[in-house]
# Entry
Amino acid sequence: MIQIHDIVGRKSYDCDVFFRVIDVKDNVAILYGEDFRLVADAPVNDLKVIDQDQLLKQAEKNVQEINVSNFLLAQEQEKIKQKKEYELTEGFREENDFFHIPGRVVHLDGDRKYLEKCLLLYKKMRVPVVGIHCHEKEMPNQVGKLIDQYRPDILVITGHDAYSKVKGDIHDMAAYRHSKEFVQTVYEARKKEPNLDQLVIFAGACQSHFESLIQAGANFASSPSRVNIHALDPVYIVGKISFTPFMERVHVWDALKSTLTGEKGLGGIETKGVLRIGMPYRVKPKIN
# Structure
């Protein structure tokens, strides 16, 4: 029997994606992607419970992919840091004379479990963040108040999404699970701050309507090729922007190359960084 919280795969898709069972009604299960920001439904008789060995193999694969992305992003951050400090000091000051203020982030997520994973990565990257769990349908109503309350430099609007061919063609917004809500949320955010460099927005999830999100005012969005994106992909893009100095531009490819999905699932526009560097880091006492 299929039960809520089971990790399952769809037999008709050769169990290519692992899902969590969120609900079961009339022998149809509501599924949330375990690693990808995908929502789906499937008949219970099409589902197979994933055994522990398969889960362990997938977990090991995920760790390897995440470690590679973390390494690439850490390299980028260190390059930016060293370059900027050298330019500011002509190479003569000590590193400890400086402090860095990365961009503040509000991360709005429709999945509580994914939000927790993202917050752990933000912490590891030392990105200041406020994480808020909110159902996708409530996001347009909540985003304005959150911007007023937290005044973020970067806003993440994500959760779950999916495109269904049986509901319409790829250009039909009605064929998407939550793209409409993501687009409305971006519109509401841009009412508060229309400047693309004053508030940087990432929006979307698996298979989201990329073009509409960009037109609504997102700097980065998913999914140009309507593919699944990894749960942590928004954080990698945010990390790049947060640690790029505000006088420099983040080219789209530079933001995407540290992600787990790449350009098929993610895209955007050239955007200014939000990092600010100050000094002195500490005041040395005078010795009489």
